[in-house]
Specification:
Blueprint: H1 4-13, H2 27-32, H3 49-69, H4 72-90
């Protein structure tokens, strides 16, 4: 298992100044951060059939993520399930 502080220290020694820990809240992120920067995501999609297909393919996942994140109990259960899956993967 990779220890977070070990690889962060190595990255800093190699000259890395910014590490993106991804979106969403997590206790480990709060303990490691030195500041917060707003980050925005999106896509530029041309008004052509391929653009519409791309947008339609992405929307169900976005809607599901919004649904879960807007419900704290469900978000907590999802977080615990993902943490458990991560522990199993690291074995």
């Amino acid at each position: 298992m990779v220890r977070p502080l070990g690889w962060l220290a190595g990255a800093a020694a190699a000259g890395t100044r910014t590490v993106d820990l991804g979106s969403g809240p997590a206790r480990y992120k709060d303990s490691l951060k030195t500041r917060e920067l707003p980050v925005y995501g999106g896509a530029v999609v041309r008004p052509v059939p391929g653009g519409a297909a791309y947008r339609l393919s992405r929307e169900p996942a976005r809607a599901a993520r919004r649904f879960v994140s807007d419900r704290p109990r469900l978000a907590g259960a999802a977080r615990r399930a993902l943490e458990g899956a991560g522990r199993l993967r690291d074995r």
